[in-house]
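Follow-up to my earlier ticket, as requested here are the two runs.
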Amino acid sequence: MPQSRSLKPTIKVDLKDIAKLNSSTAEQRQDIDAINETDSSFKKSLGGAIYNGDDDILPIVTDKNLKLIFGYKVSTGKLIGTGIGEDQIKEFLSSEKFANFNGASGIYPLLVDSALNVLLGYDSHSQRIFGAGIESSSNPDAISTPIIEKAKNHIIAYGQSLSVGAQGEPAQSTTQPYSNLTFQGGPRAYDGSSFSWSPLKPLVEDNATAPDGLTNRGETICSGLANYATTLRAMDGKATDSHVILASSAGYGGAPIADLEKGTSWYNNTFLEHINQAHTIDTDHAVHCIAWLQGENDGSLSTPFETYLSKLNQLITDINVDAASITGQSSPVFMLTYQTCTRSAQWRQIQLAQLQAAKTNPLIFLVSPLYFLPHNADEVHLTATGYKWLGGYFGRAYKTLLDGKRPKWLNPLSATRRGSVIRVRFDVPASPMVLDTTNLGAATDHGFAVEDSGGLVSLDTVEIDGQDVMITLAESTSGAVVVRYAMDYLGSGLAINNAGSGNLRDSATETILVDSVERDLYNWAPHFELDVIDIGE
C-alpha cells in the first residue's frame, strides 16, 4: 500500500488570508444571502452547510457561489462540512479510502496531490490545520512534519558510553509498567556474548556485557524515556497501550563522532542493524527519534566547533535517508540531544556546537545539560538514578514531538549592554526563572562569567528580571566582550571532570519518580557563550 509523503512547501498560505474572506462587501453578502434563500435543493442534498459570511467560520473549500464545502468553526474548534458531522469526517478522512493516511493517529488529510503528498491536513493533537507553508505562519512551535505513529515506534539511543549506561549499575528499571518493548537481549540487544534480537520483550534494563565488550553497563535512558512519555500521554487521557515504544541503545563506549558516522563499521553493522532487525520483526515500524548522548571523547580530542557541528548535522541527514530506505517511512527521524558536561571548562567547542545544532537544524532539539544530575565517582558518567532521571527529560521531549510541537529548552537568545548592565535574554519554557542554590551547589556568580580583551571581568550582581538575567559589572571593560555560562566555575560539592556549572533554571512543574523519589524536571540553562552587543538609542 503506498504511503503518504509530506510535500515540501511551494505556496505560502496564511490563515489570516483565509480569514479575509470574512470581510466580504455588503453587496457580496447580499448575493450570498440570496443564494442561501433560493438554492433549497442544494441545502437539502448537501446538508445546508452554506458559508454566509459568518465571522465564526473559516472556509477551506467553497464552490463558485461561495457555498461552503469544507470549513473550520472557530467557536467550537471543529471542522464542518456539507452533509457530514464530526464522526463522519474522522471516519472518512482516517480510512484507507483517503490518501492511505490511516497510520497517523489524529492526523486527518484534507487535500492531497496525485502522488498522495498531503497539501492540507488537520492535526487533532494540536487542534491546528497544517500544510504547505502553513506551519510557520499559524503555529511557530509546530514541527515541520508530524510523526506518523506505527505499531512499533522506535527510539534509538546512540553515541558513546553514556548512551549505553556506563557505570549505571545496578539497573533500576527491572519491571515494565506499560506496554513498551525492547529487543530480546535488552536495550543493548546483547546477551553478554552475542546479539539477541527476536522476539521482542517488555522493556527492562539489565547489567549484561555490552557489544563494545565492556562490563560496567547498567541502566540506560531507554526505560526512563519510554515510560515517562507514556505517563505523560496517560495524563492526557490516552491509553497506555495506544503508542507502543520500542527503545534500544546502539552506542559505542569511548567513540568520537568520527567513529559513529555513516560508513564506519559501527554505524553500518550495529546502529543500522537495530533498524533492520526491528523492521524484520514487525514491518509496522518506524524510527522517530535518535537520543544522542556523545561528545566527551571529542572534548578530549579538541575537535573543532565547525567539524563537530558539520558532522552532527550530516549524521541526522544520513540517518533519515537510511531509516526511510529500510522502513519506507515518510515521517522524519528527529534527534534529541543532551549537552555534554565533561571538559566544558577545558574545551567548550563541543557544548557550543551541540547548542548551535539545536538552534539551527529543524530536526535537532536540545533536551538538557548534565551538570545538575548525579554523577558517578569517575566524574564522567551518571549513576543509575542519573540515567533514569535524564530519561525523563528525553521522554518529555519525545511526547512534545508526538503532540506536533517543538521541544523547548531554556534557550539563551541575546546579550546586550547599556552602561555597566548586561542583560542576557532567554526563551523561557516555564516562568519564572530561578537562581537555584538549594537544589544545586552554588557556583561563583551563579555560573556567569564576562570576559573582555584583558580577561575575566569582576561582576557586582547577577539577578533575574523577567526573561532576562541582569548582570551588573563591577569594573569597566575594553575591546570585545562575551558572556558565558556554566563554563568557568563548578558549583560547590560537584565533582565533574574539567566541567563548569551554574544555578539558572526555569520553573517547569513536571516530575518523574526515580528510586522512589519525585525528581523535578526543571529546564536548567545550557552551557553557552554570547557576544555582548552595546545598545543605546
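Run two:
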Amino acid sequence: MSINKTCKNCSQPFEVAQEDLDLYKEISPVFNGKRYDIPPPTLCPTCRQQRRLAFRNERKLYTRKCDLSSKDILSTYTPETPYKIYDQTEWWSDKWDALKYGQDFDFTKTFSEQFRELHLKTPHISLVNINSENSYFTTFTINHKNCYLIAGGSNNEDCLYGKYVTNCTDCMDILSCNDCELCYQGIKCERCYSCQYIKNCRSCNDCTMCEDCTGCHDCIACFNLKQKSNCFLNKQLTKEEYEAELAKITPLTPEKAQQLKNQLNELKKNLPHTHAHIYNAEDCTGEYITNCKNCKTCFNTHECENGKYLYFCPKTENSQDCTFNAPIGPEFSYNLCSTVALKNCMSNFLFWYGDSAFYSIECHHCNNVFGCTSLKHKQYCILNKQYTKEEYERLVPKIIEHMRKTSEWGEYLAPSISPYAYNETIANEYFPLTKPEALQLGYTWREKDPLPAKPPPPKSTDPLKKTFQCEKSGKLFKVIPQELDFYKRMNISLPHLSPDQRHYDRMAEYNPLRLWTRTCDKCSEPIKTAISPDQPEVVYCEKCYLEEVY
C-alpha cells in the first residue's frame, strides 16, 4: 500500500509506492539477525536527486598546489578550500594511510557533524580521470586518449568539450552520445558518423541539423525521418538538388546554423513527437531507456532491471535513487551518486567496487564500511577506524539507532558535507537556485569571478594566438590546436560562444529529468513524458507515433 507524503524541502506532495517500500525492506542491512529498516524518504524524488548532484563538480576546475608535494596541479577544489587535496598519482600511492585519521564515534553528536570533521582532515583526490593518456583536463572519466574537457565518460579518443560520452572518436561539443565519430554539436545520439547539430539521432551519416532521425544519410534540417537520404526539410531531393543545398551552407557558420535551426523548428511545429525515446524495453517509463525491464521514472539507463529513479546508470539491478553510476551500476542499493559496481549499499558518493557500505565518500574496493572517506581495500571500518568483524557488527546497529533519533538514517549525505559550493556543482545545472535559496537549504555558495574586460586587439591573425570573447556570456576563451584542426577538417567556422556557453545551450535543449502526465494528441490515451503539457509540441504515444513515422 502506497504512502502519500509532503517533501520537507519543496513542500510538494509525492507518493512512496508499495514497490518502493518493498525495495527499502529488501536492501535494509541485517546485523545479528535483526533488520534495520530504511524508512520512507522525507524528500520528493526531485529534491533527492538535487541533493545527490550537489556533491558532483564536473566543470569548475582550478589550479592549486598539491597538499602533499606542493607541486602545481589541476583540481575540482579551489585553492581556498579547507580540504586537503592530493594529486591523483599521490592520492593513489602508498605515501599516506587514511586509517591514521580514524576517530571514535561520539554519540553526543550527529553523524553528519562527525563525518564532516573526518572529511575535512582526510586527503582527497584532485581529479577523477582513470587510465587517461594526454587527457588531464577531464573529470569523472576512464580510458581516455587525447581528450579535453570531457565530463563523465569512458573509452573515448580525440574528443573535446563533452558530457556523458562513451566510445566516441573525433567528436566535439556533444552531450550524452555513444559510439559516434566525427560529430559536432550532438545531443543524445548513437552510432552517428560525420554529422553536425543533431539531436536524438541513431545510425545516421553526413547529416546536418537533424532530429529524431534513424538510419539516414545526407539529410539537412530534417525531423522524424527513417532510412532516408538526400532530404532537405523533410522533402526528397535528387542527389544534385541536395548537393546544391549543401553548398549553400558550407562552410557552416554560426549564422547559417541558426538559420537552419529556425527552419527546423518551424517544420517541427505540426509534426508528431514521440512521448519518450525508449528502445527494446519492457514495462518502463522515463526518457532515453534502452534494453531495460521494469524501470520506472528512469533517464539515460541501459541494460537495467527493476529500477526506479535511475539517472545515467547502465547495468543496474534492483536499485533506486542512483545517479551517474557508470560504467557498471549498483545492485540492491539506494541513494548513490558517482559510484561503480556497488552491492547492498546506501548513501555513498564516489565509491567504486564495494559491498555493504554506507554513508561513505571516495572509497574504493571496500566492504562493510560505515561513514568512511578516502579508504582503499579496507573492511570493517567506521569513521576510518579499523574494527574486528564482531566489533563492527556490534557498533553499527547502535549508530543506526542513533541516526534514527537524529533523523539522518535513510537520508542521503547532508548538504553540509559536500566539499563544493552549490553553484560549483551540476546540481545548479539541473536545478538552478539563487544564493539565498541555496543557503536556506543548507548548501554553500561561491561568488562568481568578475568578468574580464574585453581582450586587447589581436596582434596576430593566428586563431591560436587570439583571445575570443563569448557573444552571450562575455567570458574570454581560447581555441586550442586540436580544436582548430577539427574545425578545418569538418569545414566549420570558429565559434562565437565559449565552451561553457555552448554546453549550457546544449543542456537547455536536453529533455528535463522529470516526467509529466499528458494525453496522446492523436488517441487521447494517457502517457508519461518528459515533454511538459505547457510545451506546444504535438506528442504521440508509442503506438500512434510508430504508425505515423514508419
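The only thing I checked on run two: The chain has twelve helices and 38 strands. Let me know what else you need.
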